[in-house]
């Protein structure tokens, strides 16, 4: 019973933090977002792990809510790398399909863009590095997700490097965590590349 109490308290804390950070995100101007994105993307592209990776798993950021990672997807594809994007499946699961500029993306719930079923399915074992989305991160590399659990499930069996992007103004000292929450290897802000585990 005690673990249930702790779990529900943590869930409430996550919900409250998610609501607060979303208000803070909504207050960031489009110009500030563009400047922040440029700095974040520059840090990401300069990571040796990104340069060495053949296959990367990214996400297609929602304008105004997340860094607009469409730029990274297209730039890395232009460099000749394979770039995968998430496609949501029933049961809070997801698969990774390769981005192909010749195949139109599909817009699904919450304004999210996904690859279609026509796109090549990528194996998790072939992915060298994953860029993991979040509402925000903390200094230890823990993320506050969107509440669906898709990435927590997927990351459980992922052996490659993991990276998180977080605007400096949204970086937390500590986000509430539960046992299943995984840390990323590195958190990037506009000013800092912070390795959380080696």
Summarize the structure.
The protein is an alpha/beta fold and 198 residues long. The chain has helices at 2-26, 30-45, 48-52, 70-78, 150-155; strands at residues 55-57, 82-89, 93-98, 106-107, 113-114, 121-122, 129-131, 136-137, 143-144, 161-165, 186-188, 193-195.
3D structure, described in words:
Strand 4 and strand 5 form a beta hairpin. The chain is an alpha/beta fold. It has one domain: NagB/RpiA/CoA transferase-like (Rossmann fold), CATH 3.40.50. The chain has five helices and twelve strands. The strands form three sheets. The protein has an eight-stranded mixed β-sheet with strand order 6-3-2-1-7-10-11-12. A two-stranded antiparallel sheet has the order 4-5. Helices cover 31% and strands 21% of the residues. The mean pLDDT is 92.
CATH architecture: 3-Layer(aba) Sandwich
In the CATH hierarchy, what is the class?
A: Alpha Beta
**Rg from Cα:** 16 Å
Question: What is the general shape?
Answer: globular
User: N-to-C SSE series?
Assistant: HHHEHEEEEEEEEHEEE
Strand order of the largest sheet: 6-3-2-1-7-10-11-12
Give the terminus-to-terminus CA distance: 36 Å
- Show unreliable segments: none
**How many structural domains are formed by the residues?**
1
Instruction: Determine the fraction of residues in helical runs and give it as a percent range.
Output: 25-40%
Tell me the total number of β-strands.
12
CATH superfamily: NagB/RpiA/CoA transferase-like
Name the average pLDDT: 92
CATH fold-level assignment = Rossmann fold
């Amino acid at each position: 019973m005690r673990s249930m109490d702790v779990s529900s308290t943590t869930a409430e804390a996550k919900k409250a933090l998610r609501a607060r950070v979303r208000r803070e995100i909504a207050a960031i101007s489009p110009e500030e977002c563009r400047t922040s994105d440029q700095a974040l993307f520059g840090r990401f592209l300069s990571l040796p792990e990104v340069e060495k990776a053949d296959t990367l798993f990214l996400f297609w950021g929602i304008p105004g809510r997340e860094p607009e990672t469409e730029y990274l997807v297209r730039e890395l594809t232009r460099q000749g790398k394979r770039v995968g994007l998430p496609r949501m499946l029933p049961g809070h699961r997801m698969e990774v399909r390769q981005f192909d500029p010749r195949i139109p993306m599909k817009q699904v719930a919450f304004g999210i863009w996904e690859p279609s079923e026509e796109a090549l399915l990528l194996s998790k074992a072939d992915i060298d590095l994953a860029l993991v989305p979040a509402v925000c991160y903390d200094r230890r590399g823990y993320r506050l997700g969107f509440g669906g659990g898709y990435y927590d499930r997927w990351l459980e069996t992922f052996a490659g490097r993991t990276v998180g992007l977080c605007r400096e103004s949204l970086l937390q000292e500590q986000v509430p965590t539960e046992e299943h929450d995984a840390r990323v290897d590195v958190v990037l802000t506009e000013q800092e590349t912070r390795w959380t585990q080696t």
